[in-house]
Specification:
This protein has 13 helices and 11 strands. With 321 residues, it is of the alpha/beta class.
Length: 321
């Protein structure tokens, strides 16, 4: 028996490594899909192929795979952690108001197969809901963009891009300023994506935010993660933009999917875990993200609605109960 268990363990350890490779390849191949969504797709595929005989064993293996995916996620560690954590919670929670009634016969069955199929179905429902997040956010946020406004954004954010494209489709005329976003210069990709859609966009230096802030109407950024107090973790350079915006009374808005809500409570930059700040957890050099406190954030546009920073903790409680 112990030999069979050891053989099973070695086989699934190998399979987990294969799933991690598939995750990395898909992230490189498709930059349109958030890494957290790709990670959840890997977890669903793992459930499809798993041969476990108990719920506890499946949960442990999903948590182990989630940890491996987190290590492979690079700068998106925060969103992958929160997304995978939420996924496991949703599929294993017996009573969930969002996922329909639970057939008691499933849990009383002597075979684990009906349970596995049920959890797989819940997982697919959860993924389908997440895939609609950007469109829901765009529908909520685009009315804030009116004719003649100038919007400042940081980095390449797909959810911000979705909002701006929605406003453009509604015949709104506006201008977008995009920071270069060193060191990867992702701002250039954002500018190109906006111009390809026919939206007027200008790239500016990261250090020029003080100069241009006077003619900006509001700031709209995405987020790698939103923490319990309503503050956000995002690409390095977001925090100084928020500080400058508050000093000149410019609204600072965040567009973010709820699967990026992160159970962490940092109070300053040093409180962020190293695996969120650096590509290498042991590195102490140039951070990839910074922390923007909730007092600098005016509104969060999410698939759960338009929230104030103080409402994030309440939503996290709902998501994890």
């Amino acid at each position: 028996s112990s030999g069979i268990n050891a053989e099973y363990g070695h086989y699934w350890s190998y399979r987990m490594e294969e799933f991690v490779k598939e995750f990395e390849q898909e992230v490189q191949r498709n930059n349109e899909t958030p890494e957290a969504i790709v990670a959840i797709q890997c977890l669903i595929k793992y459930i499809e192929q798993s041969n476990v005989g108990t719920l506890q064993q499946l949960i442990e293996e999903l948590q182990e795979l989630s940890s491996l995916l987190k290590s492979a996620a690079g700068t998106s560690t925060t969103s992958v952690v929160s997304g995978c954590d939420l996924f496991v919670r949703f599929i294993t929670l017996m009573r969930n108001r969002n996922m329909g009634p639970v057939d008691s016969d499933i849990w009383e069955s002597k075979s684990f197969e009906p349970v596995r199929c049920f959890l797989l179905d819940r997982g697919k429902q959860f993924l389908k809901r997440l895939m609609m997040s950007r469109k829901k956010i765009a529908q909520l946020a685009y009315p804030f963009i009116t004719d003649g406004v100038t919007v400042l954004t940081v980095n390449l954010s797909r959810v911000v891009l979705e909002i701006l494209c929605k406003a453009h489709d509604k015949m709104k005329k506006f201008n977008v300023l995009v920071t270069v976003s060193e060191p990867e210069k992702e701002g250039a990709m954002m500018v190109k994506a906006l111009r390809d859609k026919g939206i007027q966009a200008t790239q500016i230096l990261d250090c020029s935010i003080g100069f241009v802030m006077e003619r900006v109407d509001f700031i709209l950024v995405g987020a790698v993660g939103v923490v319990e107090n309503g503050g956000l973790i995002n690409k390095i350079g977001t925090y100084p933009v928020a500080v400058m915006a508050q000093s000149l009374n410019k609204p600072f808005y965040v567009a973010v999917e709820s699967f990026k809500f992160y159970r962490n409570y940092p109070l300053c930059q040093l409180d962020l875990p190293n695996d969120s700040k650096y590509l290498d957890s042991e590195e102490k050099g140039h951070p990839t993200v910074d922390f923007t406190p909730p007092n600098l954030v005016n509104k969060l546009f999410t698939d759960l609605g338009v929230l104030t920073p103080s409402a994030v903790s309440d939503e996290l409680i709902k998501l994890y109960i």
